[in-house]
Amino acid sequence: MVQVLISGGTGLVGKALCNKLQAKAYDVAILSRHKNTNSPYKCFYWNPNEDKIDSEAIASSDYIIHLAGANIAEKRWTPQRKKIILESRIQSAKLIFDEVQKQQKNLKAFISASAVGYYGSITSEQIFSEGDKAANDFLGRTCQQWEEAANQFNELGIRTTILRTGLVLNKQGGALSKMIIPVKLGLASALGNGKQYLPWIHIDDLCEIYIKAIEDNTMKGAYNAVAPEHQTNLSFTQTLAQVLKKPFWFPNIPTFLIKSLLGEMSELLLTGSRISASKLLSTGFTYKFPKLDKALVNLLEKD
């Protein structure tokens, strides 16, 4: 049986991906900082801060999917928090790389998460594709170094795939569960000017992209893991209100208020550009939820 090792396997994407892989008869294992975890999957201990990893985790794996990293939207971006966000991604990838290199392990592929933040915290009319350069801001630099850590595996002759992900829609936690709260209260409103784009993807489609990255040997390099449909913050919120059968509230929530509450992290809500899905589509991947309204109905239809 083919074994897939997942870092970040207890997170939002990790849990859903583990379930889908198991359903497809893959042998699933996760890396965990807790030696006595209640996970239904095989667990191997690791601690990137202490440079520790169970060597058997690497020895027994055919594929590694690297999702580990501190939640970028969990806390305000203080200098210390920024350091944690960056180092949690770089150190963990380096630890895996060092062990793979030490064992001379011939992995079939190394697949890493990244984010559309690679293109920066801006709103423009440009449609960004994988060939565009990383932005010179916190998100851009973080994603660039994140991807550089993943691309080390190319040096070992291991097929390396990077998925730059947008907002993941999943009712079980994550951003959507927070976004629906004001809408259900009848207070749906756009943020800032509402013109910023909001690249998104349904959790099921994202998991299927990871599985395709395992099974399709031609998938190498970076791919934008976003839905092909472009939505602004305004149109996204309007669609969400419509699906939940709630009124859309005006005026917009002022930019200054969001910045005062969140500081620099407000960039996540107030900026955003269109991201191309053309490269992924060229692989033959078919989205189950290419349209936002259908994605939201699927996730929220029982509400």
Search tags:
single chain, 303 residues, globular, Epimerase_deHydtase, NAD(P)-bd_dom_sf, Rossmann fold, TIGR01777 family protein, DUF1731, eight-stranded mixed sheet, alpha/beta
Widest beta sheet: strand line-up: 4-3-2-1-5-6-8-11
Provide the CATH top-level class of the domain at 3-170 and 200-226 and 277-282. Alpha Beta
Low-confidence stretches: none
The biggest sheet, with number of strands, parallel, antiparallel or mixed sense and barrel status, is: 8 strands, mixed
Count of individual beta strands: 12
Fourth CATH level, the homologous superfamily of the domain at 3-170 and 200-226 and 277-282:
NAD(P)-binding Rossmann-like Domain
Radius of gyration: 19 Å
CATH architecture of the domain at 3-170 and 200-226 and 277-282: 3-Layer(aba) Sandwich
* Head-to-tail CA distance between termini: 39 Å
- Computed structural class: alpha/beta
How would you characterize the overall build of this protein?
- This protein is an alpha/beta fold and 303 residues long.
- Helices cover 38% and strands 17% of the residues.
- It has a domain of 201 residues: Rossmann fold (3-Layer(aba) Sandwich).
- Helix 1 crosses helix 6.
- The model has no long low-confidence stretch (mean pLDDT 93).
- Belongs to the NAD(P)-dependent epimerase/dehydratase family. SDR39U1 subfamily.
- Pfam families: DUF1731 (PF08338), Epimerase (PF01370).
- InterPro entries: DUF1731, Epimerase_deHydtase, NAD(P)-bd_dom_sf, SDR39U1.
- It comes from Ancylomarina salipaludis.
